[in-house]
Predict the structure.
Amino acid sequence: MKTMNHKNNDNFFWTWTTQRHAARLSVTGSHDCYFRTSGGHHVLDAISTNFQVAFGHSCAPIKQAIHEQLDAMPVANPKHQFELKNRVSKRLCAFVDAGPGRIFYTLSGAEAVENALKMARQITGRNLVMARTKSYHGASMGAMSVTGDWRGQGHFGVQDATLKIPEPFEDPDLSLTRHIIESSGANNIAAMCLETISGMNGVIIPDAAWWRGIEALCHEFKILLIIDEVSCGFGRTGKNLAMHHYGIKPDFVCMAKAISGGYIPFGALWVKEGSAQFYADNMLSSGLTAYAHPLGLAAADAVLDLLNNAGFQSAKVALTGEFSAGLFDLKRHPRVKAIRNVGLMAAIDLKNNANDPPKMTWEHGLEHGIHFAIKENSIILAPPFVMTSKDNQLLFHALEKILGGGHLT
């Protein structure tokens, strides 16, 4: 199986790449946990496309909910009030489980982050925002400003209003972060914007003490806390949201991707009631044409039903055990340096020895029928929650072959 890589004569852009050297995979459909290629191959989607297809490509409850809503009321004005909007908003607030709050609807994670940044600056009257050095929060200009990896470079924006703090392992007692706050002036800092557990940047899992320290700093200096759950939320880590592992009570929670199973572009920003009250008499200068889109609400409603279904959760727990066992066995492979894993989310760091095969790429996975992501020298996995035992065995059999050495053909 080969990806195409040639002079780009397409009438659309390929994302996150030079157009001349864009790699692409020709597909004709998808089913269960697989893509179907134009060559008739079936590729296991071991990264849930981009973390969002957490319920697989053929989830009947989500598809049915969308179809029914399409027949009942496919579109709505942002000013419309209707039962589905009321119900899903209440359910999402309960799902966040961080106290009273309200939902601002978006179509993506970047827009959720964007509006959190806007609100935090408005509410506090401060301009600076703190973000981790190794982070990704979205491709819009505001979200890009708090993105620390390569995707945030080379863009005009409000980067000068962003203070980069060290990664958790670089500053476990947060003394360096405290110094940044004090030297920059806490009265200038509106918020911290942080991924609970990072995804594509290597599944970085901070410990509970680090998160307790972050919350303590925010309380001490009256800095608002924005939590980005876009990749790690909605059951990915074994909890409803990754922040539930730590008992965090933030001011904002950004959600997208698996909130709709990836079937409809959809996102949401939860805002703590104390912050939301600012807009009782101050203008909320935020909105979108497709705000609280009925099809997105229907998909989210079905997702929440699935996450509350005992049978679904039991099967997911069993899969998580099988996935963890596969990772445990893989740790013994001579090319594996380290593995980080929480729930159905993992990073496999590879050794970089002189005699090893060429640098790993996602195309290597395709040669063995699996689709994963690559970050530097790490394989990133985030399989669908509905993967079967057979799928899981195929995944780890393919990984063993890929790591076996030699050129892949």
